[in-house]
Amino acid sequence: MFEPRVVCFFCKWCTYAGADLAGTSRKQYPPNGVAVRVNCSGRVDPQHILWAFREGADGVLLGGCHPGDCHYQDGNYNTMRRLSLLKPMLKELGIDPDRVRLEWISAAEGDKLVSVMNEFVDEIRELGPMTVDLGEKLSGVEAPPEAKDVKIAKQSKAKAKKK
Ligand code: FES
Q: For the chain, which residues score pLDDT lower than 50?
């Protein structure tokens, strides 16, 4: 069965801590996520999302503090605005905009993290592997420094078709 790779840009103050809480509480959630810990969801530039897709992500999950709780005041509002601008661009590139999701998950919401991960991985599984080759089109996009050691395993197209 196709197992999606989901790059998770999680704010360290809330969603990343929520994922930690889920882990320490021994809650089960799919191991499909590749976590990138960022200072704020507002730190995630659209090119970071494009980088994730170029490197083989099938989906990208952004997690930030609830509106009003951002440690940098309006970082999460900026994220929301940027995402609404990015989605039409994704369409232009042939990427289903549903492959990107933004969720507000606090440090205390380990259960929400688990249900969002389960739901999103199921949705991406339904959509199937990301088959758009972005190598040439997006050769200039860069990873955020927080992801410099992150490897997103690429599933070869041939392998994905067999499954
Ligand atoms: S500090 Fe968490 S979204 Fe801004």
A: 156-163
